[in-house]
Amino acid sequence: MNKQFGTTTDDTPKxxxxxxxxxxxxxxxxxxxxxxxxxxxxxxxxxxxxxFWTTTCIAVGCMxxxxxxxxxxxxxxxxxxxxxxIHTTTQIDGKRVMERVRDERSHFASYIKKQVDSWPDHxxxxxxxxxxEQGLIEVNDELIAAEQIIVATGSSPFIPDGWADKLxxxxxxxxxxxxxxxxxxxxxxxxxxAIGLELAQAFTRLGVEVTLLxxxxxxxxxxxxxxxxxxMDCLSHELTMHLGSEITDVGxxxxxxxxxxxxxxxxxxxxxxxxxxxxVLVATGRRNNIKQLGVENLGVELDxxxxxxxxxxxxxxxxxxxxxxxxDANANxxxxxxxxxxxxxxxx
Length: 348
What we know:
Shape: globular
CATH architecture of the largest domain: 3-Layer(bba) Sandwich
CATH superfamily of the largest domain: FAD/NAD(P)-binding domain
Radius of gyration: 23 Å
Low-confidence stretches: none
Structural class: alpha/beta
Strand content: 15-25%
Largest sheet: 7 strands, mixed
Number of domains: 2
Oligomer: single chain
C-alpha cells in the first residue's frame, strides 16, 4: 500500500487551506497532460506553476530551435545551389530572422494559453510550490494536503560553477539564445550534444562565425566510433570544432570599447589556446528542477544530479510514496512525446 502524506482525515492540521485528490506541480507538457487526464476522473484537482504557463518545447526548446533551423536551411540551400545551375547571392537579415523565430513561437504559445485560460481559475495556482516537513504543499498563502502529487517541474540549463558571474551578459543558454535581437558576428558553443550541435550548425549557416568546443571527442552523444568519426568528418566541413578540449577559464575583457567573452582551453594535443568573441552559448546539458521542491522532507534522498535515488524509471514513482515524477523532471527520456505519455500513465 502506498504511503500517504498530508492526510485528508479529520486529523489534518487546521492550518490546511485546501484538500485535493491530485496536485500537479509544473505546467509544461507533462503537467498539462496530467491535469487534463486527472480532471477526467477527479473534481478536486489543482495545478501549481511558477513562471510561464506553456511548455519548454514551445518556449525555449524544439519549436524555436526548429524555426531557427528552418531559416538556416533556407540560407544553406541558397548558398549551395550552384551545382544545380542556380546562382544566387544571399543577404541575411539577422534581426528579421530572430524576430520571426519569436513571432512564430508566440503563435504556437497562443494555443496553449487559450487552453490554460479555459481551465477554472480556482484549480490554477501561480506560485512556487514547496513540500514541507508534514508532507503538505506550501504555495503563496496556501497549505495544501494532496492524496497524490505529480511533479512535472521540468529542467533548466546546467551551467558550470562560476560561469554566470564570469561571463555576465555575454553568456547564453538554450533558454535565452532566442531572445537575441540580432545575429551576432561571433559565438562559441560549449557542448556538442544534440542542443549545442543543432544550434551551432544553424548559426553557422546563418553567417555567424561559430566555434564549437566539447570535452569529449564526440558529437551528439554517438557511441559507435565509426558513426561518430563519420559525423565529425561531415560536420567539420562547415563547423569549426575543437573536440577533446578542456576549458580552464572563462571571462570577459574590454576590446576597443566593447566587452567580449573569452575562453581559455587546452586542445586535444594539450596545447593552451584561447577563443574570444561576442557570446558564449553554454549547452552543457540540462538538470531537473527538483532540488528546491523539498522532496527530502518526504524522506527522499537525491543523487548528484538531483534525481531521487528511489525513483522507478518504469513508473516514475518515488519509493512507496504516492508521488510521481514525470517529463523532463525525472531525467529519464527528456522527449516531448515521452513526457506526454508519462503524465497520462501516472494519473490514478
